[in-house]
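Researcher: Sequence of Protein CLN8-like follows. Predict its structure.
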Amino acid sequence: MGLVEAIHPVLGTIEYRQPMSKLVFIGGSLLFFTLVFVVCGLVSYGIKTYRNLRSREKVFWNLAVVRALYGVFCTVMGSWAIWWDEVAIKDVVHATTPTGYVTIYVTVGFFLFETIASTTSDLLFGKFNPLLNAHHFVSLLGHSLVAYYECFHYLGVSGLILEMSTPFSALCWMLLKCGLAESFMWKLNQVVLIHTFHLRSVVECFLWVQTYKNWTNMWNEMPFPLLAVFLGGLFMFSLVMTPYWCYKKTAQLFNPIDWNFNDSKRKGNTNGYTVDIHNGDGRNKKSK
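Model: Prediction complete. Tokens:
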């Protein structure tokens, strides 16, 4: 029995290849994450730190909550695919499962939401994060191709465990904004976050090993657009994104500043912090 069948038997009987099924799951995922974003914004107004944030930071706060929720989902689904899925592993190209379909469709819906929200925010506030946007675009394109070609569930779902760092990254930023950079909670979370990037490298090695072991089958049987996006994305994650983000989060452990909003330091007093702008000390201290 697969994971989604254990949650509810009906999920094992759905015709996932039908266009209406795809529309319902992808559209439902997009709507769900949009609602989480809106509800988070409404509920967070009860938090003083949130009310003191600038508009773009409020959007980032809401996105952080949505990303954390999705990261937990991916960690569960990716772990299932790697350690417990006995069906998809038999044929990494053609094997499909109900759990794989649900995971892929939810992922397409999430990255649709993420791409729309991030692009809208970038255009409204004139700030762009090329690396993050590239991550969103490759993930959306890759999983959309998996949904379209209806194959490649094993590695397509296994790779989602790379999102294990996302909940800790979101918590890192939110605690930072609450003025808790010197707290034990923030430091502990940061250490765990750094180790999730170490584990990401382990997972990426696992994906490369699986690609090597199944290369003949993948080269002969996989649709070329899907194969090209998978290899391109894996190269990008393994050689650029994971090493760079691991370095940034390690540096942040010793110098807890907000790199997402580089002008925070110039503003001196903001979001629960007092920053010494005269001696150039980038290390933030809690305001009294």
